[in-house]
Structure formats: structure tokens, C-alpha cells
Amino acid sequence: MANIGYSLLCEQSPPQRLVAQAARAEAADFDFATISDHYNPWLHSQGHSPYAWSVLGAVAQVTERIELMSYVTCPIRRYHPAVVAQKAATVGLLCGDRFTLGLGAGENLNEHVVGEWPHVEVRHDMLAEALEIIRSLLAGERLSFHGDYFTVPEARLWDLPGDGVPMAVAISGPESAELAARYGDGMIGTVPDGRLVRGYQDAGGDGRRIGQVAICYGPDEAQCRRTAYELHRWGGFGWHVLAELPEPSAFEQATEAVTEGEVAQRISCGPDVERHVEAVRQFVAAGFTDVAILQIGDDSQDAFLDWASKELLPELRKL
Predict the structure, then answer these.
(1) What is the CATH number of domain 3-316?
(2) Which residues are catalytic?
């Protein structure tokens, strides 16, 4: 049976509501909750982007059981990897060993706020160094590191969870799959592609395979389609495009030709529980062990969580 998660999307909700949503997700019996770590929203219409790590600290205090996870944090530009390790260890302590550190190579949208966005090959090399630093610090080592991109003259973490902090690494191809297998305790994928899972396993990875699927539940399918279009039409380009655009305005220009019908073809919309179950089933069939559900729209979260508790989760537990 797959673990079913709930996605806290910082781009569409203010921090107070994200904390309340996490508490309600736990009450609804979701297994885990992911949180996006952005500086900007994808589109102006989303309208929010609070600091994910402050939200995580608050969520840790209003929940008791549900696992937490960053989905994902980029440790190569906006944050130094030594600081990412410290943040992860602190959140792990605050939530009682319920935190998984999700890591990836990031997007220009969020990372250019501190300077130039490197070429993709450079980013891959930077991520490899960052993963080595974070892994060593989370293992309790006293670290001295001198790489091509990062220098850590001397560092250690003074407060570490007893069971450590698991790491999961986002993958999009063979190189990132190898990094996930070497440094991570799991992999992250955003599309239900069995080739990603097989690539991770072929590289020696044997941990959790964590995915995320966007849906738009609601009683009016036509309204759900409009909401998905207004807030989530950016999601169909793939990471080779998503990682390069610098501003919400660039995503708006890039999606001018996208139609509501095209968005509805890739995002399940409306009240039909089986349609949403099928969206999750695709990830399970591709070999994912964990699937987080991202409900599109801030004002629909309460209704979604009530419905998920009564109708969606019982059906998903059968997968």
C-alpha cells in the first residue's frame, strides 16, 4: 500500500493557513505532508510565498504524528548546504524525528534572487558537493570541506535528532538518479514515469520513491477546470523549462498559448473520486511508494480535506 501525503503549497497560501492545513491533514489521516520551498510563486495569481522553514517549525508544534518533508529545498544558491543541514536537524528535533529533507537542483525562479543562475552542468556539480556536505553534517561528523564551489573550513551540528534526518533527492535523469542513490535515502519524482524509478534502482537506490500529483477537487467540474488553469497551467512544461524561467511574469508569458482544456487533460478536476484515484494510481503503477496530493486553490483546502478523509483516502488505501 502506498503512503498518501498532503502538499502544503506555499505559493498559494499564507503561512497561518498552511499551519492550519497541516493540522487538518493530520486529523484527516494523511501519512505525510510535503511543503514547497520557494522565494516566488509560479504565477502572480497564486499570490503567496512565505518562508517554508518558519512554517515547518510552526507545523511541528501543531502536529504529532504526520511525517513532514521539504519538497524540495535547493542547497546550491539561496542557501549554503551547511545551513541547510542545520535547518533540517533543527526541524527534525522539533517534530520528533518526523522530518525528511527533500533536496533538488532548484529553479531560476527562486535562486536568482541572490545572484546569477548557473548553467545546468554547473548546478549538477554544485548539487553533488552540497549533498556530500549535508550528508556528512547530518551524520554527526566534524566537517572540513574544500570543493570547487563550496568551502566549509570547519563545521559540526550541535543539535541532531537521535535517528538522524533522512534525505531524498529529486531526479530527472541518469545523473540525478545516481546522486539520489549515492547520497539519499530516497528519490523524488514529479511525473509518474517508471523509467525514473528504474534508473534510481539501477544506480543502486533502494529507498522510498516519492511523487506528487496535482488535482483540483470540487463539486463543480467547470469551476475546477478554471481554477486549475488560473493557478497551475505552468506545470506542464517539464523541469528543463521550469528550472530556467526567472520570474512569475515569465511563466505568464510562456503559458499564454496554454488552454484550459490542455490543463484539464493532465490535471484531474471535479467531484469524481475515481478520476482522482486514477491520477494517484499512475504513480503507484510506475513504482512510487509515496504519493503526495496537491489540491489546487487556497480557498478549497478545507472542503478538500473533509472530502479526502471521508471518500478519497479510503479508496486510495486500496491501491
Answers:
(1) 3.20.20.30
(2) 38, 107
